[in-house]
Write a structure and sequence with these properties.
By secondary structure, the protein is mainly alpha-helical. It is built from 10 helices and 2 strands.
């Protein structure tokens, strides 16, 4: 049975996924997002991370339909990035991938946790999209390595949980295709992220 939820509570949950300096932009984005309950069985269960000294709480999943293109038209470029970030948490993997591809190369620190969370999920095409979208991760000293290294250094527990999930999904779903864990796209990403964090803190 579908359980209706207070739209204002849903909006508060979604707004908490971004730093407070973006509050006005987030409000404008949420004004175009269709109302929808969260899962009646599994609430959003936000995960908390630190972004530049501020704690944000990002929902595990959202169940809102995507806004029509004409409703998105008035959004600024920053607001469009916020919208894409939110929909990387959508319950449909194809929707997550489509929106991820719009933000994966973005250099904003508050985008990083949305991308990194997807690296710990099970959709292979999403992992491949992250690898394609972060070519700078293989280049020491690159802007992408600094960006992700800084975030991981601030959120070691979150990254450790992501590592465990990558290994688990490989073992459950992809061991038949990638007999060696090191060849699995998720493993490739982990190595790049570890290297970035090591570069940031000055040790492996």
């Amino acid at each position: 049975m579908q359980i209706s939820q207070d739209p204002s509570n849903v909006a508060n949950v979604l707004a908490a996924a971004f730093p407070s300096c973006l509050a006005d932009d987030v409000r404008d984005v949420l004004a175009v997002v269709p109302d929808a309950g969260l899962s009646p069985v599994s609430p959003v269960s936000p995960f908390e991370v630190e972004v530049q000294g501020e704690t944000v709480a990002i929902p595990s999943r959202i169940y809102n339909d995507e806004p029509e293109a004409d409703r998105q038209q008035p959004l600024t470029s920053t607001q469009r990035v916020i919208l894409h970030c939110l929909y990387t948490r959508h319950h449909d993997g194809r929707v997550r991938q489509r929106h991820l591809e719009q933000i994966v190369a973005c250099g904003e620190p508050w985008v990083v946790p949305f991308v990194l969370q997807l690296a710990g999920e099970y959709v292979l095409e999403i992992l491949e999209a992250i690898v394609r979208g972060l070519p700078g991760m293989s280049a020491p000293g690159s802007a992408q390595r600094r960006l992700y290294g800084e975030f991981i250094a601030r959120n070691p527990a979150f990254f450790a949980r992501t590592e465990r999930r990558v290994v688990s999904y490989w073992s459950c779903y992809y061991r038949w295709k990638y007999a060696e864990f090191g060849t699995y796209p998720g493993s490739v990403l982990l190595e790049a992220f570890r290297a970035a964090a090591g570069e940031r803190v000055g040790r492996p």
